[in-house]
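re: that chain from earlier
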Amino acid sequence: MEEQVVTVGLDGTPESLAAARWAAAEAERRELGLRLLHAWVLLSPPTPDSPSADDQNYWAKRIVHDARMELSRRHPDLPIEEDLVAREAETALLEAAARSRMLVLGSRGMEPLASFFLGDISLYVVGRAERPVVLVRAGGVEETRTSGVRERDVVVGLSLHGPQDNLLEFAYVTAFTRGVPLRAVHGWTRCCGRGARSFPGWRWSTRSGSRARRKPSYGRPGAAGC
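^ sequence. v structure.
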């Protein structure tokens, strides 16, 4: 069952703390609760007669507790809950994503080759989660909020195959809560001029409800929204 929370995965890195800050602000915008999740397969269940278990879990509790204290100061009215899970991180995050309105993770922004050899849990989860997953990099969140710079448009990439309703709904709500335009993009590589289909791009304004037709772009889909 989907719960009315935004879940963020914490692992003690600056990237995960940046993700927690973003998730708290997003939960407040959407009037949702915030869940701080830390997963470690070696967590011990707390028992009254086992002080060693408390010692073994000390750093896991510290990661979540410190994040909660900071976020509570920034968002005093935001409901925040802690969740320590004794499971592999990938499994715990996928289960949390299935129960949450949104899952937020920190991203190191590694190159594809480095991600392959070093492993990247966030990419693993993004590729398998059925609910929205947001990746946040450290360094860019606070500057946007404190410098007075207007937030950028929300860009949603569309496919010609399969239903798009859930994707468009999520993108629209994200744009609406920020008061910024929503830009829908479909990109493809045109291999030849003859017989190429024209796919019009649309740009919705969440302020006025108007939309303006934009010219389609040709190129790699990953670069179409840049």
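The chain has a mean pLDDT of 78.
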